[in-house]
Queue: 4 jobs
Job 1
Amino acid sequence: MLTKQQLKKISDWLWEAPTTLRAGMRVPARVYATSAMLDEVLRDRSVEQILNVATLPGIVAAALVMPDVHEGYGFPIGGVAAFDREPGIISPGGIGYDINCGVRLLRSELLEADLTDRAQSLAQALFRNVPSGVGRSGHLRLTDRELDAVLRKGVAWMLAQGHGQPEDANYIESSGRLPQADPTAVSATAKRRGRDQLGTMGAGNHFVEVDVVDEIFHAPAATAFGLRPGQLVVLIHCGSRGLGHQVATDYIRTMLKVAPQYGIKLLDRELACAPFASLEGQQYFGAMAAAANFAWANRQLITDETRRAWQAVFGPSANLSIVYDVAHNIAKLETYDVDGQLRELLVHRKGATRAFPAGHPEVPAVYRPIGQPVLIPGSMGTASYVLVGTSQAMTESFGSSCHGAGRRMSRSQAKREVQPNKLLATLKIQGITVAAGSKAGLAEEAPQAYKDVHDVVEVVQRAGLAHKVARLRPVVVVKG
């Protein structure tokens, strides 16, 4: 097992594992964490996993983990790695089973006082409108042709069907569509699993949550994002459901078979991969992009369902506008300055959020003078944060930040240690109204199962990867 003494301390929030630490490492591995955080991180295999990632062909500069890191499948959750288009690889484990799991923030014109005596009604309206739970079906039924259109077009298809407002796509990462999507690369099994799941959040750590803007740290960015103290906002966290999970399953199986044919030696089978330029690599990239489009379409339909619930409680004139939508399980082609040369890289982010700075062409025009909103959900009993991207992230972390608080307990441990009724009582005392389909599932997501989101965000702030804009306090939580 690795020890802190084997890592080089670069600063109070950054540590480095040199290439001499493990045979085959092509680049160093870097860990964003305080000393106390690192002690906790080293208790699981997450740093071991990022050392393994550093051995993969075509990796550039360094393999990185964010302060919310914890052990995952192959790549750690909280991991960032960039690969040359050629001879670099693409790895499903570097993206995760829930392709384009991500977060969307909606803002209202209402204040916390407007929620008085309506919190329970709002919780129930959201719980009715947004189906949740393992395997739950949504209200939308798609034909084969319609599902393929969703996989190709993402949010654009949803808007064409009337599920949203015309300007919504302007405030979504990549406008809610990756053009590389190839529905033919998605298996019939994956399509069957996803066919009736649009508009559903699933279970686990997915949620629809109403928050209050509790504190502003960066007034110019908050103004640009339309955020002000006391305002009611909504966070939506979910992904590509069964369709994305099956895409990952299918291609992990494929890549385990073909990796030896390409001369790829894996230190861990969970790092199954193929050259990005290979037939299998391109097929997976097309399928992953299609699943990402499905996830954006899913959050779009949930936004539509949330707006209807909101208006049922607050009246037909009450509107919710999209602030931004970010993916945190995805691989994207992006351009970076590497040793003085601009290179197009395939950036894998698994449990990490894009954090682009002011002036970047992929930041929505309205936010380009200030930078991209970065959405960091915490646990349902603590807080969430809105950050803004920085130019320093472009040179140090491939334009990436953390994605949440990060688990410190396994789900099974949380279920053993947390009493659901006691948790509900505690949340009620804190002024948090909860609607959930499963008390056991609620225990898995207890605040004590997660790291301190304030500490995680502070590391990101001190490292200069993103700057704090606003803190959000939960008041209504809806889970599967």
Job 2
Amino acid sequence: MFRPAELFIGLRYTRARRRNHFISFISLTSIFGMALGITALITVLSVMNGFQKEVRERLLSMTADVTVSGAYGTLANWESVLKQVRRFPHVTGAAPYVEGQAMLANGSLVSGTLIRGVSPKLEPQVDSVGRKMVEGRLSNLRPGGFGIILGSRLAVALGVVPGDKVTVVTPQAVVTPAGILPRLKRFTMVGVFNIGMYEYDRGVALIDLHDAQRLFRTGSGVTGVRLKLDNPMFAPQVAQELSAKLPPNDLAEDWTRQHVNYFRAVQTEKTAMFVILALIVAVAAFNIVSTLVMTVADKKADIAILRTLGATPRGIMAVFIIQGTVIGAIGTLLGFVGGVALALNVGTVVPFIERLFHVQFIPESVYLVSGFPSDLHWSDVTHICVMAFVLAVLATLYPAWRAARTQPAEALRYE
């Protein structure tokens, strides 16, 4: 603990008007440098968290939290599996699906796509595609009606609107007197959905579950069962527990494995940005070294007088540690306030800057989102502020040690 005298002198040195204004300038530079670095770190990490959350929500709007499928592409006992998984902890919904690759054609316009057969009654339990419909409804899919719902970009690529006919070509071949031909089936477009992700809006089409079973010749079987959880973060745990209780030929896979490369890339970018911006904080923190070294040189006579009055080397160290710590604390506090304020209002600040300078930082045609989503994590804020403050304290040790080694006779020789 610091004694009252050391605390008083250290605080007085911090707020006293110095004879050397250059030292004051470096001190202010250290404070504002730390504040700027902390503000940038908090804001950037919050924006990256916001992007990650936004993309994750869009991914999960078409991707189930957990998927149970058969080892050979078909789940024959899906009805018993459906009953079993619905009783499982954290599972709030389950729905069967049939999935297969096909080619859609409208005249000379052709596009490959993933066709997913769904149950219009059960599908809303596992994803939000029903709420993303821009034309038509999910309930327009009826058994035997051979209706099809296309992603918005896929519909544009094929040049079709609701009511038009689309030819579905599947990889299964049909033997005819004319030879082996691909299977063709005419579907009527009954709706359009828009998830906001190119992967889905351009490459996915939905049809009724029974129509998909007939189209892909799965009989009464399905490709698998899709599950919705009360918290998507429990998906890896639930998938692991399900795998232990399901029959050996049934596989359980969570959404993080399906998009593992994307989330690894985001985490790598987040770590890299943290390290890069942390260097700004480190540079500002170690500016405190320069401030205190120059202060020690400026205060040699004062240090010598304190030593002759009985101050110990440890007490002299404490004085300058307190001075540097106060500088670091002020910078950390300013950065905390600025970072939190900017992170919480980045959705307002960025559009204002775009309007002011007539620029667009995030074009919707290039990126998945058109703005800067922000998701402030208080754990990130805590880590950043603690790191900055610790660096500031460490930066005081060497100058304080130099001050403690000051010899009174040498310092007062020319005074």
Job 3
Amino acid sequence: MASDLSVRNLTKRFGEFKAVDEVSFDVPAGSFFSILGPSGCGKTTLLRMVAGFEAQSSGVIEIRGKDMADVAPNRRPVNLVFQHLALFPMMSVAENIAFGLKRRGLKGAEVGRRVEAMLERVGLPGYGPKSVNQLSGGQKQRVAIARCLVLEPSVLLLDEPLGALDLKLREQMKVELKKLQAKVGTTFIYITHDQSEALVMSDRVAVMNRGRFEQIGRPQELYGEPATPFVARFVGENNVWSGEVTASDAAGATIRTDEGFVFKARAKGACAPGGRADLYLRPEAMRIEPREAEGLNTFAVTVKAILFDGANSRLLTVTEQEHELLVSLPQNRRFDHIAPGQRITVGWHPDSGLCFPAMGAS
């Protein structure tokens, strides 16, 4: 599949500091690609280089096969949607969307036709005469995107555009943005520190840390098969144990944790006997009072609290050694009998846990 954006060995230095460090990736045409990472990891700097607002120190940026070196921001076939949208409050919705077209020299009926067509595409037909101040947060979001899409960019860049919205609207807009991207077919490159936004909306996600990409893959791959400890910690929730590897083979590794538990798990990387390792386990992988314990890693915990959150409800538990663990409450069984202070047995299958060599271990 052809790529709308191709980046090769892209680097940005500020003095001795590398904000972006030898990053390479391709974004297929018509896809939704997210860059996920914590604040300060370099993702906005990367986006600004693609947009042309920041010059790269080295590396190549190609959009639809054309090298963007020395191409000014206003000459690049990209548009950028900012977190605070930057709509003009003194203009109507139609005037906001038409702004870029008029700057390009379009006039009269052609401008009106394109604006109306774009309002239809973003689900706001008839909203042209309205004032920006009459719109909800989600409607403003769509107007900001329409103002960019009407210029027919090859790539739309979105820099944390949902960050200023309240939680409920943000949840709604995640679905709306995904549907909108699929409808208009424009390539979206989306920057966020919110893992839920990236996982829900994206075809592929790059997880960024300290200027580099740790892993690029489908959301399901990042969640189920994290390639590094950072990805395991940053994408989704994990319980973590540290300990020493006592045995390893093709099937996985056995780790004796610092609390004295002996667990079997899948191995990621060289988890050699005698070496230190960290074991990661999703809360939903833990079974409460398993009916069939054979083949499982089982142990006892005490319930500290019930964290009710509808379908995402969990138990906060603690081992005898005061190691806190989160355990998901499954929806297909009732656990009304469980109460804080109660001691219960939990278990998990060795295939559910991932064992990584400890940070700094050889």
Job 4
Amino acid sequence: MFRPLVLFIGIRYTRARRRTRFISFITLTSVLGIALGVTALITVLSVMNGFETELRERILGMTSHASISGWNGRLDDWRSFDKLLEKEKRVTGWAPYIEGQVMLSAGRRVSGSLLKGVLPDFESRVSEVTEKLVVGDFLRLVSGDYGIILGAELASHLGVSMGDKVTVITPQITSTPAGILPRLRRFTVVGVFKIGMYEYDRNLALVHLGDAARLYRLGDSVSGLRLKLTDLFEAPQLTADLSQALYGNARVTDWTQVHSNFFRAIRTEKRVMFVILLLIVAVAAFNIVSTLVMVVTDKKGDIAILMTQGMTPGSVMGIFMILGTIIGVVGTVLGTVGGVLLALNVETIVPAIERVFGAHFLPADVYYISELPSKLVWTDVYQITSIAFLLALLATVYPAIQAARVKPAEELRHE
């Protein structure tokens, strides 16, 4: 079907003559439509991949890849897990923790918060919070000194800074001659951290593990152990292996279970966005149909002459399939090059546009990720280009069939 003559004629039809300038304009719009669609798909999916990666790193920078906790909310004899975890090569670090919901009070301001007791020397093994301190020093959390480190938004809401006092009120009660009162303790602010996630900056407070144990009356027990893995995607398998090794004496969970709905929502949004933007490519591909139909109508006389000279209907189909394929390939290549370049430089291009127009697409006081992150995944690029080329190829079938059905006798009679 695709003999040299067929290829030559198909390429020849891509050039405009004076009387076919309108057809060439439609062809150009088809090429640009495919190019813009492919560029938009690659860029948007890269940005969404960047957001997903950024959010995952920020969330998992604070939460554990996996955790071991007691079924009743307390884990006794937690130091005995040291030997088990040392043998596990997939675990790079672990740290004990105590957590519970409390009320924080400073002056007339009150806020609910998650209070977490940690060991400063251990916490750096599983969390990035030690690197996110705005002011203060993590080592100032000393057992018995009752120091507290607050998230930046939480500290701002309470109106406190370094050295100020904060009252921690727990749901537990204490019986006194005056009646039943909630347990409370005054802590001194020794640091402020900023993760960049509202969930943590607004609702998290850290104290020493010993102070938290006295506050919650846990003695030598903890709420659980947080684990950091060499590969966070091995967490589900590690969870299953540890659960089997512990014989159900403790509960083992991982980040895919705790944040499953969040990351599933991101993946669903990515798929929906892919389908929506793919419609742009589909519309441009259907423009190829109209372009080729117009070319077939304009070239019926040429087709009739070629068929009288012995060209088969299959070869005629090949001419117009080559023409449509060239349009699709050119549009796809231009779109792929543009999309890859834009995805790789979006973190530079967007700030430049903001400086020129004096606007901020993601204001820092509204969005906690104030820059557009981008992560180019070549699998997405291959998938997008393959689908775009396939749609362009399918768009050539109907016009090519119509060209092959031209009857030479009828067409030459009108010439």
